[in-house]
């Protein structure tokens, strides 16, 4: 673990030191070290030479040294699962969560989901609630991470699908219908008991 920790930046090592539980600290270290390995493979560089910077809202990016590659990336981890997304010349965001029962799911949905999403969520049957909740949560989180604005972009300004039996879609971004917006959304299951979502900018015509 010490060798992996040595691949992290000073800021990442500081973040790792703030975890209360060793298990969570180790998971963070492994996920970030693996990210550097995956980036290094794509950049043709050594992992310890991959330099990361952070935007005003905390989104990680490659330093100016590698800016010409056009490589964009994002990472998410939950429990023992980490997920990574990479794209060239367009922004990308990813989120993964362990599906579990949330005691105050209704109040969380009322606070963070849009009105349309909240109405759809409340209409779900009890057996669909957990999956529907995390469908919405991961899709909204992935979109926000792709934007790079964090919660500075109001969560009620866009809608995503969340019903377990419906495809993953962005339904609306402000006044623009989802099919006409500049983003694509995909959902995935990294392993049983987890839900993930990835959002990327659409490819622009040359």
What CATH calls the topology of the largest domain is Ribosomal Protein L22, Chain A
How much is the average pLDDT?
90
How many domains would you count in the coordinates?
2
Given the C-alpha coordinates, what overall shape results?
globular
Instruction: Give, in order, the helices and strands.
Output: HHHEEEEEHHHEEEEE
Helix content: 25-40%
What's the gyration radius in Å? 18 Å
**Spatial order of the strands forming the largest sheet:** 5-10-9
Task: Describe the protein's architecture and organization.
With 206 residues, this protein is α+β, with helices and mostly antiparallel strands. It folds into 2 domains: 2-74 and 84-91, Alpha-Beta Complex (Ribosomal Protein L22, Chain A); 94-201, 4'-phosphopantetheinyl transferase domain (Ribosomal Protein L22, Chain A, Alpha-Beta Complex). It has 6 helices and 10 strands. The chain has helices at 2-5, 10-17, 22-43, 105-112, 115-122, 129-147, and strands spanning 52-54, 60-62, 71-78, 81-88, 92-98, 158-160, 170-173, 176-177, 183-188, 194-201. It has a 3-stranded antiparallel beta sheet. Strands 6-7-8 form a 3-stranded antiparallel beta sheet. The chain has a two-stranded antiparallel ribbon with strand order 1-2. Helix 2 packs antiparallel against helix 3. The longest helix is centred in the first third of the chain and has 22 residues, at 22-43. It is globular. The model has no long low-confidence stretch (mean pLDDT 90).
């Amino acid at each position: 673990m010490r060798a992996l920790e040595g691949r992290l930046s000073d800021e990442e090592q500081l973040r790792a030191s703030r975890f209360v539980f060793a298990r969570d600290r180790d998971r963070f270290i492994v996920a970030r070290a693996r990210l550097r390995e995956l980036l290094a493979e794509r950049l043709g560089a050594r992992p310890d030479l991959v330099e990361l910077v952070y935007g005003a809202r905390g989104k990680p990016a490659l330093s100016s040294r590698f800016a010409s590659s056009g490589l964009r990336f994002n990472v998410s981890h939950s429990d023992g699962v980490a997920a990574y997304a990479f794209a060239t010349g367009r922004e990308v965001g990813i989120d993964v969560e362990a599906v579990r029962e949330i005691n105050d799911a209704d109040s969380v949905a009322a606070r963070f989901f849009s009105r349309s999403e909240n109405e759809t969520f409340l209409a779900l049957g009890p057996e669909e609630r957990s999956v529907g909740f995390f469908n919405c949560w991961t899709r909204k989180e992935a979109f926000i991470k792709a934007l790079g604005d964090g919660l500075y972009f109001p969560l009620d300004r866009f809608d995503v699908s969340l019903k377990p039996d419906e495809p993953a879609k962005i339904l609306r971004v402000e006044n623009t219908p989802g099919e006409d917006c500049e983003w694509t959304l995909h959902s995935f299951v990294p392993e049983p008991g987890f839900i993930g979502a990835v959002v990327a900018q659409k490819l622009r015509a040359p």
